[in-house]
Design a protein that fits this description.
heterodimer; A: alpha+beta; ten-stranded mixed beta sheet; about 30% helix; globular; disordered N terminus; B: mainly beta; eleven-stranded mixed barrel; 1 helix
Chain lengths: ~200, ~230
């Protein structure tokens, strides 16, 4: 009977572990500057073919999903970030945007969702994120052509207050305002700032 | 945001330019340890000392005049109000010229995150007691900015820049005055619980008086968290 209770306990722990809402996850990510020589040639060539005269800063990123390389740069007065996996295969492109640049319908959808999640919130940053085939994304970045494979998401970084308290969170929405990911950002040690 | 630190630095420089005051250069080593307990309580203990190396008056060359000035032991107990703010109080004991000085501290702190840096606000009041001296009451505000020098987040084994700016309004025997402090250090994040910093700490003391003191310290600090 004792062993059965232990197994049942473990079973419920596993179920709870799977069913815990994304709000309790903490984002753990490490990002650091790397030299172009450390970047897969495929990624370097991809960027060069679209933005040949742009100064690119390369970063390595390690998170729960693995190792990625990211090209960060400014083009047409906008900040871009293009992510590749460790072999240089394209993953996504992100661009910082302002909330007021979203369509009215999108603003309403996001405001409605955020109002349901938080009693108060302040948006720190929004990034539009495009995923799709490398070819479709290349065409999109070069002349705005929206290929059939392209999907658009929105990543919000905000400070929000809810029943759990105040915290910085990163929330990924799809174009329709559905939440794809909602993680709490780790604050890190602040003792050296406060004492 | 970009205009704010420029304005603050300008205020400090303007004060230096027009005062006819005393100048001191020395070293300021610090050991800062923090202990976390249950229910969001944290005890911070800081050991700090100051040594003069050069001293002089405005218009005269600085003289090499080494002197051990003082040692401070500060203990502050805080509790998190949220993941971004905390409040608490503490006590400092100072040994200076053979005398013991006592200070009681009250603190409120808030941190903010921006896309490429963190900003911490620290509000303090303190009361300093010394035998045969008037009690000094102070109201302080400090802004601390921390920015990664590699990437957008400060990861283990990476360097960062930290800039502090603090305003201390104080009153002694009914006479008010103002101190301004600035700090610029390069830090090395050994890991999230160990940081080593070094840089320049400037303190302008008694800015409204006829003889303001300008102190420049080489700051070396080790921050440990347990």
């Amino acid at each position: 009977m004792g062993k059965a209770n232990n197994k049942l306990f473990l079973f419920f722990c596993l179920i709870l572990g799977w069913s815990l809402p994304a709000m309790t996850q903490v984002k753990v990510e490490r990002e650091y500057r790397i030299k172009q020589e450390q970047v897969p040639q495929k990624a370097v060539e991809y960027i060069s073919s679209i933005f040949p005269d742009t100064r690119i800063r390369w970063f390595g990123e390690i998170n729960a999903r693995g190792y990625f390389v990211e090209a960060k740069f400014r083009a047409n007065r906008k900040k871009y970030s293009i992510k590749f996996d460790s072999t240089g295969v394209f993953k996504d492109v992100e661009k910082v945007i302002k909330f007021k640049k979203l369509s009215k319908d999108q603003q309403n959808i996001f405001e409605h969702t955020l109002d349901s999640l938080f009693t108060r919130y302040k948006i720190v940053k929004i990034q539009a994120q495009w995923l799709g085939s490398a070819q479709d994304i290349r065409a999109f970045l070069q002349d705005g052509t929206t290929g059939s494979s392209i999907k658009k998401n929105f990543e919000f970084v905000l400070r929000g207050r809810n029943s759990e308290g105040i915290a910085y969170r990163e929330i990924l929405f799809d174009e329709k305002g559905n939440i794809l990911r909602n993680v709490k950002l780790s604050e890190g040690n602040t003792n050296h700032l406060l004492f | 945001m970009n205009k704010f630190p420029v304005l603050l630095i300008g205020l400090c420089i303007a004060q230096i330019s027009f005062a006819q005051d005393s100048y001191t250069v020395g070293t300021l080593p610090q050991l800062n340890t923090s202990f976390s307990f249950e229910k969001d309580w944290k005890l911070n203990a800081k050991l700090e000392s100051r040594q003069f190396l050069f001293q002089g008056l405005n218009g005269q060359p600085l003289k090499y005049d080494p002197e051990y000035e003082r040692a401070d032991l500060e203990m502050v107990l805080t509790r998190s109000i949220s993941s971004l703010s905390s409040a608490g109080g503490g006590y400092l004991i100072r040994l200076e010229e053979g005398k013991l000085i006592h200070r009681f501290i009250q603190q409120l702190a808030i941190t903010q995150r921006f896309p490429s840096f963190r900003l911490a606000h620290r509000f303090r009041t303190d009361q300093t007691f010394e035998s045969n001296e008037y009690t000094v009451y102070r109201l302080r505000y400090r802004a601390s900015i921390e920015r990664a020098l590699n990437g957008f987040e400060i990861d283990p084994k990476e360097f960062y820049l930290k800039i502090n700016n603090e305003y201390l309004g104080w009153m002694e025997n009914g006479t008010p005055d103002l101190d301004i402090r600035g700090l610029a250090v390069i830090g090395y994040n050994i890991d999230d619980d160990k940081k080593l910093e070094t840089g320049i700490d400037y303190r302008g003391e008694a800015l409204f008086s006829k003889q303001t003191e300008h102190l420049f310290w080489l700051n070396v600090a080790l921050h440990l968290s347990f």
